[in-house]
Specification:
- By secondary structure, this protein is an alpha/beta fold.
- It has 2 domains: 7-214, Rossmann fold (3-Layer(aba) Sandwich); 236-366, HUPs (Rossmann fold), CATH 3.40.50.
- The protein has 15 helices and 13 strands.
- It has helices at 19-32, 48-52, 77-83, 106-115, 133-140, 150-154, 166-174, 181-189, 194-224, 230-239, 251-268, 288-303, 316-326, 336-340, 350-357, and strands at residues 7-12, 37-41, 58-59, 63-67, 70-74, 87-90, 119-125, 158-161, 242-246, 271-278, 307-312, 331-335, 362-366.
- A 6-stranded parallel beta sheet has the order 3-2-6-7-1-8, with helices on both faces. A 5-stranded parallel beta sheet has the order 11-10-9-12-13, sandwiched between helices. The chain has a two-stranded antiparallel ribbon with strand order 4-5.
- Helix 11 (251-268) links the parallel strand 9 (242-246) and strand 10.
- The radius of gyration is 23 Å and the shape is globular.
């Protein structure tokens, strides 16, 4: 089995900060040092200075894909694997592949390159991180559709923050460096306002600072690790934070809750479990649309590396708290509508009963925010 390739991510807070340029610059530097480097996918966006950086570098030709009568171009994963260079440059990590492709997302293609022992340099904007999706929407009013799980970035061997001031980035747009003048004009009035850019820049800086802190803590733990007794291991397991997310069939609320739970779990370095409480075996009580929604939410949770469960019980509050205790959960996340909706049993709403039954467990209610 080949050694796993190394992943280096050039992370920015918005299009046009220079991620692709920096990635190409590093690729050229590695090539000058004698390494075998190819460009697996490059999106020029008509930027002349960026296009000039590719001069003399080897491209793996894109593959043509027919979709709804149109011919589209995608990265040729099979071609890159056959070529098997030491280093491959892959632009736009969060890209969604054309339906019918072997993998749905480009980051999944990159995983295959890494598994084949190929080192990958890639570019990404912070707004494409799944856990930040709701926060970005609240700040900018833009719901980013192309996202990737945070664990993809967590596994990176190196993250390079590519940064310019918001004012400098807006000046680039005004000069037509990032987009054509007509497109840039609209962008400056919408997504690229100075307020939005400052907020996004802050999010990127905080995210990377947290990633650095996490890596330092892991390294420190490895250095100081000693053999532990079974008792010490048991005590550590009891102290560990465990987060339980209670989801329902409402699309936007469940997705937001899962993202929030994943984010909180990452910051607490906690285990994370998502559950749906069903009053009968399976999901028979739901309509087909509701059943599809729940299965989609559970799949979304698994994609974020959250353990997912469907548990059976006619009394949601009792079933949820029993499950929480059995799994030593220290915190339960519930959506406001889910906690108050449905049939009210004697003794109050589901939320009120969960709070009474689980007085030693922290209960967090997440309201579904509307912009």
């Amino acid at each position: 089995m080949p050694r796993k390739g190394r992943l280096k991510i050039f992370l920015g807070y918005a299009p046009g900060v220079g991620k692709t340029y920096q990635m190409l610059d590093e690729g050229e530097e590695l090539r000058r040092k004698g390494m075998d480097v190819v460009i697996g996918y490059f999106e020029p966006h008509g930027r002349k200075d960026t296009i000039a950086k590719t001069e003399g570098m080897e491209f793996i030709p894109r593959r043509n894909v027919e979709y709804r009568g149109a011919i589209l171009e995608e990265m040729d994963l099979a071609g890159i694997l056959r070529r098997k260079s030491q280093v491959c440059l892959v632009d736009e990590l969060a890209h969604t592949n054309v339906p019918g492709s072997e993998q749905a997302k480009r980051w999944e293609d990159v995983q295959m390159l890494l598994d084949a022992g190929i080192n990958v340099l890639t570019s990404l904007n912070v707004q494409h991180l799944e856990s930040l999706n709701d926060q970005i929407w609240q700040m900018t009013g833009v719901r980013v559709r192309e996202t990737l799980p945070d664990w993809v970035v967590d596994q990176a061997d190196e993250i390079v923050v590519v940064d310019v001031t918001p004012r400098a980035l807006r000046h680039r747009l005004e000069r037509g460096v990032v987009y054509s003048h007509d497109k840039a004009e609209k962008a400056l009035e919408n997504f690229f306002t100075e307020q939005n850019l400052c907020a996004l820049r802050g999010v990127a800086m905080r995210y990377v600072a947290h990633e650095i802190e996490e890596k330092l803590l892991v390294e420190e733990a490895h250095k100081s690790a000693t053999e532990s007794s079974a008792h010490a291991d048991h005590e550590a397991a009891l102290r560990k934070e465990r987060l339980l997310i209670c989801i329902d069939e409402r699309p936007s609320a469940a997705a937001m809750l899962i993202r929030r739970g994943r984010r909180v779990a990452d910051y607490l370095r906690a285990d994370c479990i998502a559950v749906y409480v069903s009053p009968d075996a399976g999901l028979a009580h739901l309509s087909q649309d509701e059943r599809d929604a729940v299965e989609k939410h559970l799949g979304f949770g698994r994609n974020l590396r959250i353990d997912t469960n469907v548990i059976e019980g006619r009394d949601v509050a009792v079933t949820l708290v029993q499950f929480a205790r059995a799994h030593q959960a220290t915190q339960i996340l519930m959506g406001r509508s889910a906690s108050n909706g449905g049939k009210r049993r004697r003794g109050g709403s589901t939320l009120q009963r969960v709070v009474r039954l689980a007085q030693d467990i922290e209960i967090t209610i997440v309201a579904e925010r509307r912009r």
